[in-house]
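User: I'll paste a sequence; please echo it back and then give the predicted structure.

Assistant: Echoing your sequence first, then the prediction.
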Amino acid sequence: MYKPKYMTRVDQIEGLSEREIKEMEEVIERFPFRANDYYLGLINWKDPNDPVKRIIMPDLDELDEWGEMDASQEHKYSVVPGMEHKYDDTALLLVSKVCGSFCRFCFRKRLFSTDNKEVANDVTPGIEYIRKHKEITNVLLTGGDSLILSTDKLGDIVKRLREIEHVGIIRFGSKMVAFNPYRIINDPELPEMISKHSTPEKRIYIMAHFNHPSELTDVAVEGLRILRDAGAVVCNQTPMIRGVNDNVETMIELFKKLSFIGVPPYYVFQCRPTKGNYTYAVPAEEGYMIFKKAIDQVSGLAKRARFVMSHATGKIEYVGIDENKIYMKYHRAADLRRYDLFMAFDRNPEAYWLDDYVDPDTLV
């Protein structure tokens, strides 16, 4: 049984020059590194611009001071340790502060610091909060990565949530199927647990994170099949990342491959202005045009993705652009008065975030 080997030091990777190691170690002092030999094996090391390398290997440009650590102000929606409640019907449980590997453009890299207290080892306060708030029908288990947990621990959380009548949807936020599909393939207890708790009336959803078609290997597709056969509904979301998927052809291929295997594209996110992310971010208008051109060239089954920004005030969808204006609307909103608020702003090719167009406090 193949089990990927994990590493947290770049000097454990063969073939890197001393200069590369030194530069990467400088970055790792600030933003940790974690990977495994399966995922590193997807890299074409002869290509300096390989997209998988871009996803996982530290880059000196991450030390740029642009952005802030909690770009979407998630801490403001923390109601008990380890849980956020931003939208009426949805609760977010931070069940882990570790991932299968660390994406360099992660928007929650603050969680991986040793002094971060947002992730709680005991989810009981969060579950009790959910139990008392009947408006919550949708619970997302994330972090970190929910599937980094043992199946026993994850299953216990799911069991406790399934005992709450008003919780209809349980979602696992996870990139493990891309980082380490053997987590699924080698663990028969995982699909058994999903099958038990993903019922015809109340499904478990897996929110997968495939950023590039190269990640959709045969073993990853097999991992996805196991999850679907167990009764989970699997969708995919990805940020648009400079040097990874910021071109029409790559997005088309990603959308097509996902739809061919029965994994609907769900969201394409504007890269959050998190510290270290400037080198990975694509200006919003450029990103929307890439997204729109790709969507125009795929089937209806692959067109379900939306291009959105996870702003502090809500999830904002980019809905159109012309010579003079860019158009957005609130797809989800922390303040109910903003739901479906339609916005038109003068074009700004340098804009990355809503705040580059307007002071969000002036909306409604």
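The longest strand covers residues 325-333. Residues 6-362 form a domain with the TIM Barrel fold (CATH 3.20.20.70).
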